[in-house]
Amino acid sequence: MAHPAAFLAKLFPRLFKPAGATVEPANLRDAPQLSQLHRASFHRGWGTEEFEQMLIERNTLAHRLRLSGSTVGFIVSRTAADEAEILSVAVAQKHRGRGLSRDLLRTHLGHLAGYGLKTVFLEVEENNSPARALYERAGFVVVGRRERYYKDSSGEQLNAVVMRRDLS
Known about the structure:
The protein is an alpha+beta fold. The protein has a seven-stranded mixed sheet, sandwiched between helices. Strand 2 and strand 3 form a beta hairpin. The relative contact order is 0.14.
């Protein structure tokens, strides 16, 4: 018979976060792993070179999510004046649903606020319920909509919503 904790962890993964999950600044050496995660998570994944370029820009802030020595997620934002735009968030498929993205987002927002930024924006596919729920729980509100902004793998055009959160 399986250990009761292991059984419960499979039933209720959000109650059993993996031990040792850390959020830390991403650097240039992380570009290949971030690209791999992005390509696995989005229809049009960014290449290693795109991540390298972002990571050397002074107005980019990126964090990686590490678990047992491996990078399993990331978040990246671009800043201008006292605002930021979250460009992308991704967590590896097998690690979703455990609250890791919430911790990643919370830590990243804390850093943005610590740099004196006042407002954060992002765009998310309108029907992406898990992502929208994550952002709404973090205090983001819908402030706009972009028709046919994304294209999925079948070529179907999908709407995006623009969300905003004040940090002060």
